[in-house]
Design brief:
The chain is mainly beta and 120 residues long. It has no helices and 11 strands. The chain has strands spanning 3-7, 10-12, 18-25, 29-39, 46-51, 57-59, 67-72, 77-82, 91-101, 106-110, 114-118. The protein is elongated, with a radius of gyration of 14 Å.
Length: 120
């Protein structure tokens, strides 16, 4: 069973910073790309950032230059450092990972989500 556990959300003023963390675990599974998505009220879920297991990153245009995603493969943990936060960054942030077994069975998994609120 694959589990993704997120932490680090909260309330911050505009211009502030927050760090999100996500640790993936599972028995006899391998992890591929991991990503952060977010969903604001009344909006569709969107990808924010992604990192491959080789360390290649991708960022949505709306967060480029402000957010940085990193990965520690030794413990399947990804970090999303969010700087210069804006009110429009307010959303529930979800961790996502692709995992597969040695028999080749694979799929995408989601964390439970963590609330990020940017408000004065």
């Amino acid at each position: 069973q694959v589990q993704l556990v997120e932490s680090g959300g909260g309330l911050v003023q505009p211009g502030g910073s927050l760090t999100l963390s996500c640790t993936a675990s599972g028995s006899r599974v391998n992890f591929g790309a991991m990503a952060w998505y977010r969903q604001a009220p009344g909006k569709q879920r969107e990808m924010v950032a992604e990192v491959s297991n080789g360390g290649t990153t991708f960022y949505a245009e709306s967060v480029k230059g402000r957010f940085t995603m990193s990965r520690d493969n030794s413990n399947n943990t990804v970090i999303l450092q969010m700087n210069t936060l804006k009110v429009e960054d307010t959303a529930i942030y979800y961790c996502n990972a692709y995992a597969w077994t040695n028999s080749g069975t694979g799929g995408y998994y989601w964390g439970q989500g963590t609330q990020v609120t940017v408000s004065s």
